[in-house]
Amino acid sequence: EQAQKNANDFSSLPDAELALQMKQLDEAEQDIIDDANRERGEIIEIEPLLDKLKFNFNSDVLLEEQKEAGMNFLRKHCQDFIETARAERQVRVDHAREAHLARIKEEEEEMHRRLEQEEEERLARIKQEEEAAARRKGEEEEEEK
């Protein structure tokens, strides 16, 4: 009822006022269209790929066919992007693996050096103890004579 009343009120306006309101509505509609086009343009500037997915309403190609072509293009683009990302990731993984193996090898070499050093120190202590024992034995034998 309210909509019918508004339509009747609108229709009952004098021609000049009706023309003015129609012009205002057209201008408001054009402002909305301009804002939408500006926003779409800003988005496309950020992501140019989206420009290839726009519909061409002036084309003889059906919208459904344009949609399908756009989806195929997007699918192909995504597949290419994924392949590129996988290749880049593999390079990073290989580099990280090599760095990790190098660290492990370095740690093993350091552990091996420490073990060798500890072994040398142990053998030196044993030798010193044997020499000390031999000196004591020699001293004891001299005391006995």
Supply the key terms.
145 residues, mainly alpha, 3 helices, 86% helix
Secondary-structure topology with pairs:
Blueprint: H1 2-11, H2 15-46, H3 63-144
Structure, described:
This protein is an all-alpha fold and 145 residues long. It is rod-shaped and about 150 Å long. Helices cover 86% and strands 0% of the residues. It is built from three helices and no strands.
* Overall outline: rod-shaped
Helices and strands, in N-to-C order? HHH
Low-confidence stretches: none
Work out the radius of gyration: 44 Å
- Percent strand equals under 5%
Oligomer status: single chain
Entry summary:
This protein is mainly α.
